[in-house]
Design goal:
Radius of gyration: 14 Å
CATH architecture: Orthogonal Bundle
CATH topology: Helix Hairpins
Helix content: over 70%
Order of helices and strands: HHH
Shape: elongated
Mean pLDDT: 93
CATH class: Mainly Alpha
Strand content: under 5%
């Protein structure tokens, strides 16, 4: 599965790197939504994938913050 490969890559990153990934994923989502609105998007399912990746990154960031607190 691609999601497990994505998660393995993200688990090895620091909070700062995850924040950068989150910013770039949000920027990509914005661009995809804009293309979708103008009917230029080839794969609408890409929007769902990017949204799920954003949620995965947010989850990892919360987990790393909780570990840092403890």
């Amino acid at each position: 599965m691609k999601s497990t490969k994505f998660m393995d890559e993200m688990k090895n990153k620091s909070l700062e790197q995850l924040q950068q990934e989150l910013t770039s994923a949000k920027r990509e989502l914005f661009q995809l939504r804009f293309k979708n609105a103008t009917n230029q998007l080839d794969k609408p399912s890409k929007i769902r994938t990017v949204k799920r990746n954003i949620a995965r990154i947010n989850t990892l960031m919360v987990q790393k913050k909780q570990v840092a607190k403890a």
